[in-house]
Design goal:
Elements: H1 5-9, H2 12-33, E1 44-52, H3 58-69, E2 73-79, E3 86-92, H4 98-112, E4 119-123, H5 125-154, H6 162-180, H7 186-212, H8 218-246, H9 250-293
Antiparallel strand pairs: 1-3, 1-4, 2-3
Helix pairs in contact: 2-6, 2-9, 3-4, 5-7, 6-7, 6-9, 7-8, 7-9, 8-9
């Protein structure tokens, strides 16, 4: 099977149309189903226990309380280095009233033998929105830094198309999260930042072959770059899928989901969309040079 078939037989418009249709599908999935927010980016309640003699099992606490409260729960154990006692910080997406707080204390006493009274703190939406804004700014600034660096290196305005191409990779990733109803969390944020790095690498590989290298036809140079790019992205995708099968940690699953869908989208957005635009540009430049030489 010739994976570079489209570079030889499709017109630039046809190359460009395919990833746009697929991106529209994932955008529709995202808009229709939406992506649920994790504890880090949603309001709820923080529950803290202090001066515990034994260290509770955080995973067991999360499992038991998430069932009792019918809400997402995240638990972290701490230790006071001065006294040697342990603490437990529990965060839930549910705003607890008096009945909910009593249920937490009763469940912790019955299941884990913790009789002490915890402190309850309401997490206001304004706090969660601050975290969310910080996450969005991290992604936006990474886009800007990427664009400035690439523009300086290549000195071609046409490389600006890398920005929307990487943006469409994010649409694929968001569509994947929405499709499987995975939460947007700090783990998925890390996945987005990693995906931006991987995506810009493949786009630079393509631009390097088409804009800087000489010799051969543009489509031949693109096919050569594509074989290398597919090998890189394919290796990462296989690794991500294997990790997802072998590791059952929810954060790892969220990270892998973002990278899997984002990099799958990158195969189309780089080698069809970006490739189609650059093929159109280089062939147009070649025709101009030919007519000038006449």
């Amino acid at each position: 099977m010739d994976i570079t078939w489209h570079t030889k037989h499709l017109k630039p418009r046809q190359m460009i149309a395919i990833p746009l249709v697929l991106a529209a599908f994932f955008a529709a999935v995202f808009l229709i189903r939406g992506v649920p927010m994790s504890i880090e980016f949603s309001s709820g309640t923080m529950i803290t226990y202090r001066n515990l003699e034994n260290s509770p099992n955080a995973d067991a606490v999360e499992s038991v309380l998430s069932t009792a409260l019918a809400a997402d729960v995240k638990a972290v154990t701490t230790q006071d280095s001065t006294t040697g006692t342990f603490g437990l910080d529990i965060q839930t997406t549910r705003a607890l009233d008096d009945n909910g707080r009593e249920r937490v204390q009763r469940t912790m006493a019955e299941q884990f033998g913790i009789q002490s009274t915890p402190e309850f703190y309401a997490i206001e939406p304004a706090i969660s929105q601050t975290y969310l804004r910080g996450a969005m700014w991290a992604i936006i600034l990474s886009f800007i830094a990427m664009f400035v660096i690439v523009l300086i290196v290549f000195r071609h305005r046409i490389v600006g198309i890398m920005l929307p191409c990487v943006g469409l990779d994010m649409v694929w990733a968001l569509g994947g999260l929405a499709l499987f109803q995975m939460q947007f969390s700090l783990a998925t944020l890390s996945g987005f930042l990693l995906m931006i790095g991987f995506s810009i690498d493949t786009n630079i590989l393509l631009a390097e072959h088409l804009l800087r290298r000489v010799g051969g036809e543009p489509r031949e140079r693109m096919a050569t770059a594509m074989l290398t790019g597919y090998m890189i992205t394919g290796t990462i995708l296989v690794t991500m899928i294997c990790i997802n099968i072998l590791v059952t940690n929810p954060s790892i699953t969220q990270l892998v989901t973002v990278l899997t869908f984002g990099l799958a989208g990158d195969l189309f957005n780089t080698w069809f969309l970006n490739g189609g635009i650059l093929i159109w540009y280089t062939e147009r430049q070649k025709r101009k040079e030919y007519y000038v030489s006449l």
